[in-house]
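Human:
If only I could read C-alpha cells as easily as an amino acid sequence. I am handing you a single protein, as its sequence and its fold in C-alpha cell form. I hope you can help me see how the letters and the C-alpha cells relate. Thank you; the sequence and its C-alpha cells follow:
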Amino acid sequence: MTTLNILVVPTYNTLTLGVMDVSTYSPGPAPSSPSIEIEVPSFGLVTLPFVINEINIFNSLSLGITSVGEPLLPIPDGVYKLKYSIAPAYLNNVEKTIIRVDKLQEKFDEAFMKLDMMECDRAIKTQSKVELNTIYFFIQGAIAAANNCAVETSNRLYAQADRMLTNFMNGDCGCSGSNYLINFP
C-alpha cells in the first residue's frame, strides 16, 4: 500500500528549500507523474516535478521568483502550503503547511552573536538572555502554529518575533537589567 508523506528539511541556507520524500510505496512499477505544488508567500502557486525517495532542493529560479540568468535570491519567509501527489492526483496526495523562518533565524543568530557572553554586568547580560529566549519562544510558536494550520496565529507570532529582534538589535530592548532584578531576584 502506498502512503505519501513529505518532510521539509533544513538546508541552513536562505537560498534553498529542501523537501524530502518519506513516502512508502507499494511494490511494483514506480509511481506515475510525481509532482509537488508549492504555494510561495507573495508569489503564488508553482507546480514542479518531484523526484521520489530523494531530497528535492528548490531555489528562487525553480520557484518562479527569479528568471533564468538572474542571480538567485533568498526564498521568502512565511507560510508555505505544499501538496505532493502521484497519478491519479485526486486519490494520491499529501498536503503540509509549514512556515519558513530561515531569514528570521539568520537575524536571530546575528543578535545572539552580538550578545557579549562575558559581559561583567550580570543583570544586563541576563536580561538580554531573557529577551532572546522570549524571541526564540515566539519563533517556535510560529512554527508550531503553521504546523497545525493556524496560519493567522503563525503570521502574528512571526511578526512579533521580528519586531522584538529589530528592537533588540537596535538597542531598544529595554535591557537595563531592572526587569531581571525585579522578576528574578
About this structure: Residues 175-185 have pLDDT under 50 and may be disordered.
